[in-house]
Specification:
By secondary structure, this protein is an alpha/beta fold. The protein contains 12 helices and 17 strands. Bound molecules: pyridoxal-5'-phosphate.
Length: 388
């Protein structure tokens, strides 16, 4: 049986896949089983922050795998400790809690927010307000947190205590009550269509959270670690959330998720409040340490911004592109007509790996992509749209 047949027969059918089996990759290029080359502007949904098999990243990860690959969380370990120190030195956050994915990072943030409120106000103050068109993960609780009705099916009963606001401050305020403990937002909604929240709106949420002692959680699973041209996206909004979660790009291709909190929440979690067997894995954290060391550089981040602006400008020159939006190298493309998924499938056939978000095409290229590679991506997309 070949790969596609094995997949169809033995893997639960939770994904509609593109008709390609990827076997290897280098930089921004992937190769399928027949040796066909693809330019990848999806990075495995923003995960391969430095592209495929970046040399420094491979060296960091393989060296750690050959040193010690796992110990339980009952022991101290240098890789996660130095990663946590790095993150808390580069940001205003004071403590980190490790997990293995974006959904888990959000679960942890939800637990921190609810326990903060429980400790201070008792058990009835536990509601969390999230936004319409958000996406926060696939566990039963993070599906609940996700403000899209299509995700609230089949798996009843869902976790209680979530309300969904429109992205305006009056809608948020109308849902706040004595039961509210937190507001959860993606500052740029990724899966929901690369929707950038309005800066005034975000600042009003921050103010409201201060007034009512609500925990402001920013889900930076997709926007974090340089994707939007800042180390973290909240920097674009001149606010500091109380909690942020991050995952996708952080490990450079290995599974990691974490949440970080400010001083106010630093002592909320105590022994046995949370845990995860695989969390803080040293091999994964060695990869993340390498990613953070590379990405936190001022020049690197300003290049991400410049490349994002360049990409958007070039995309707008394509006939058939209606509008382009996003921050840094997180870019959504609205088409005049034609189904985005259909165009994405055709792009893949033409050698460009691209994804969608709602009715938009979405690009999340490796953060170190070159201008020439961006040109090539635009060229393939242009050609694909012209072919219709
Ligand atoms: C991808 C994503 C998640 C879920 O992350 P997983 O690693 O798939 O669990 C949560 N929030 C946002 C904003 C995401 O983009």
């Amino acid at each position: 049986m070949n790969t596609k047949q094995q997949d169809k027969q033995y893997i639960m059918h939770t994904y509609g896949r593109y008709d390609v089996a990827l076997k290897s990759g280098k930089g921004c290029y992937a190769f399928d089983e027949d040796g066909k080359k693809y330019l990848d502007v999806s990075s495995g949904i923003g995960v391969n922050a430095l592209g495929y098999c970046d040399e420094g990243w491979v060296e960091a990860v393989t060296k750690q795998a050959a040193t010690i690959q796992h110990m339980s969380n009952y022991f101290y370990s240098p890789q996660p400790s130095s990663l946590a120190e790095k993150l808390c030195t580069l940001t205003p956050f004071k403590k980190v809690c490790f997990g293995n994915s974006g959904a888990e990072a959000n679960e942890c943030a939800i637990k921190v927010a609810r326990k903060y409120s429980f400790d201070k106000y008792g058990e009835d103050r536990n509601e969390i307000i999230s936004l319409r068109d958000s996406f926060h993960g696939r566990t039963v609780t993070t599906l609940s947190a996700t403000g899209q009705d299509v995700f609230h099916n089949y798996f009843f009963p869902f976790t209680e205590g979530f309300k969904y606001a429109q992205p305006d401050i009056d809608s948020v305020k109308s849902l706040v009550s004595d039961k509210t403990c937190a507001i959860l937002v993606e500052l740029v909604q990724g899966e929901g269509g690369v929707n950038i929240l309005d800066k005034d709106f975000v600042q009003s949420i921050r103010k409201l959270c201060n007034e009512r002692d609500l925990v402001l959680i920013a889900d930076e699973v997709q926007t974090g670690v340089g994707r939007t041209g800042k180390l973290f996206c909240y920097e674009n909004f001149d606010i500091i959330p109380d909690l942020i979660t991050c995952a996708k790009g952080l490990g450079g291709g290995l599974p990691i998720g974490l949440c970080m909190c400010t001083e106010k929440l630093a002592e909320v979690m105590q022994p046995s409040s949370h845990g995860s067997t695989f969390a803080a894995n040293p091999v994964v954290c060695a990869g993340a340490n390498y990613i953070i060391d590379t990405v936190c550089d001022e020049n690197f981040l300003s290049e991400v911004n410049k490349k994002g602006a360049y990409l958007k400008e070039k995309l707008l020159e394509i006939k058939g592109v209606k509008s382009v939006r996003g921050l840094g190298l997180m870019v959504g493309i609205e088409l005049d007509d034609g189904d985005a998924h259909d165009i994405a499938v055709k792009c893949v056939k033409n050698g460009l790996l691209i994804i969608t978000a709602k009715h938009l095409l979405r690009m999340l290229p490796p953060l170190n992509i070159s201008y020439a590679e961006l040109d090539e991506a635009v060229e393939i997309l242009n050609k694909t749209i012209m072919e219709g």
